[in-house]
Write a structure and sequence with these properties.
The protein contains 9 helices and no strands. By secondary structure, it is mainly α. The chain has 2 domains: 90 residues, Tetracycline Repressor, domain 2 (Orthogonal Bundle); 66 residues, no CATH class. The longest helix is centred in the N-terminal third of the chain and has 24 residues. The protein is elongated. The model has no long low-confidence stretch (mean pLDDT 79). This is TetR family transcriptional regulator. Keywords: DNA-binding, Transcription, Transcription regulation. It comes from Nocardioides daphniae. Pfam families: TetR_N. GO terms for molecular function: DNA-binding transcription factor activity; transcription cis-regulatory region binding.
Length: 211
């Protein structure tokens, strides 16, 4: 039967427009930092007028908040009580993180340096969610590059039920060394890990060994 309910048609049309705008905004956020995006940019990507974006979301902040809520909706499918456990929420993008922290792929380093996050109070490897484990610089295995690698090994050991630390001390090797990148005098880890990065810096050469 033909749809003869004007209110229903209008509601579906508004929902389609909102979805178009949110999709366009998410696409732009994957390309540049939030502060570099204008409402007009989102409207152009969505193929509608900027006025329509303002009608649906009020302001740019309202639009960004709606994008954040949609991300939380998706995350909540896996962690149903996510919102109840949150005490603060501030969304950012990989481009935002790279701009302000000079880290690649949006990876910021560590958790807030608060007393409750120090030493034995740092997050444990195991969580209240079955099958979910934590690893990296923010866990109980402390900070720093070496400790982060060690912490990852401890997390893997927890998952596998093995003492990987002791296995390594006993001489175990878990990597095919022939597949590792050769480190030369001009090797740059940032460029190697993210060739497409817009960040460029002078190559840091290793000091020549003196006789």
């Amino acid at each position: 039967m033909p749809d003869t309910d004007p209110a229903a048609r209008g509601s579906r049309r508004r929902e389609r427009t909102r979805t178009q705008v949110l999709d366009a905004c998410e696409q732009l956020l994957s390309e540049r930092a939030a502060e570099e995006i204008r409402v007009e940019d989102v409207a152009a990507r969505a193929g509608i007028s900027a006025a329509s974006v303002y009608v649906h979301f009020g302001t740019k902040d309202g639009l960004l908040a709606a994008v954040t809520e949609r991300v939380l909706d998706t995350a909540s499918l896996m962690i149903p009580d996510l919102r109840e456990r949150m005490v603060f929420c501030e969304a950012s993008t990989p481009m935002t993180q790279e701009r302000f922290t000079l880290t690649s792929d949006g990876s910021c380093y560590g958790i807030a340096p608060l007393l409750k996050n120090l030493g034995p109070f740092r997050p444990k490897v195991t969580t209240h969610i079955p099958g979910l484990f934590l690893g990296g610089a923010s866990t109980e295995h402390m900070v720093g590059i070496n400790a982060t690698i060690w912490g990852g090994m401890k997390t893997a050991g927890t998952i596998l039920g093995r003492d990987l630390e002791q296995e390594v001390k006993d001489g175990a090797v878990f990597v095919d060394e022939s597949r590792l990148t050769e480190i030369t005098d001009v090797w740059d880890p940032l460029l190697a890990s993210k060739p497409g990065s817009t960040i460029r810096r002078a190559v840091r050469r290793r000091p020549k060994a003196t006789a």
